[in-house]
Specification:
Layout lengths: L2 E9 L3 H8 L2 H10 L4 E8 L4 E10 L5 H7 L2 E10 L4 E7 L5 E12 L2 E12 L5 H28 L1
Antiparallel strand pairs: 1-7, 2-3, 3-4, 4-5, 5-6, 6-7
Length: 160
């Protein structure tokens, strides 16, 4: 089984500006800080038209329910890789090293009337008998919160 998460991030900016922001290491580092990462490493190869983004971050698990904390521990490492083959579309893979879960999907950018919408569509899979569904729901909730933090950061970034 798996859980699907689809979230839209809306930016009052042209697609080219949003793509450039997503290809900026300083922006990605600011997102990590705003997602409460205790440490992070961001690397970006390429440019706004085609790029590979790799983000490794450690996050506290203080907001994780006790049933899940037994599995994830006091903190967890997340590795996010995005492979953008064009300005408008990227493949996303999020792994949690040493844990039985991953997220795979896409991010797409669409501009209409100077407003760009980024749609993140992910399939969350956890391979733990009996509680996989509960963990997938939890990951969807946490990832949704992380994406909202990214959107807030992006709106502030683009307004500068």
């Amino acid at each position: 089984m798996s859980k699907r998460l689809q979230q839209k991030l809306v930016y009052e900016a042209p697609l080219a500006d949003v793509a450039a922001m997503l290809a900026d290491t300083a922006f990605r580092e600011e997102v990590c800080r705003n997602q409460r990462a205790t440490s992070y490493d961001v690397s970006i190869e390429g440019d706004a038209t085609a790029r590979t983004v790799r983000i490794q971050m450690d996050q506290p698990t203080d907001k994780v329910p006790s049933f899940a904390k037994k599995i994830v521990g006091e903190s967890t490492t997340i590795v996010q890789t995005e492979t953008w083959t064009s300005t408008e579309r990227g493949d996303i893979h999020v792994s949690i090293p040493g844990k039985p879960g991953e997220m795979r999907g896409t991010a797409t950018l669409v501009e209409k009337d100077g407003v760009t919408t980024e749609t993140v569509d992910l399939e969350i899979t956890v391979k733990i008998p009996l509680i996989a569904g509960k963990i997938e729901e939890l990951l969807a909730k946490l990832l949704g919160s992380a994406l909202r933090a990214e959107e807030r950061t992006g709106k502030a970034w683009l307004a500068r």
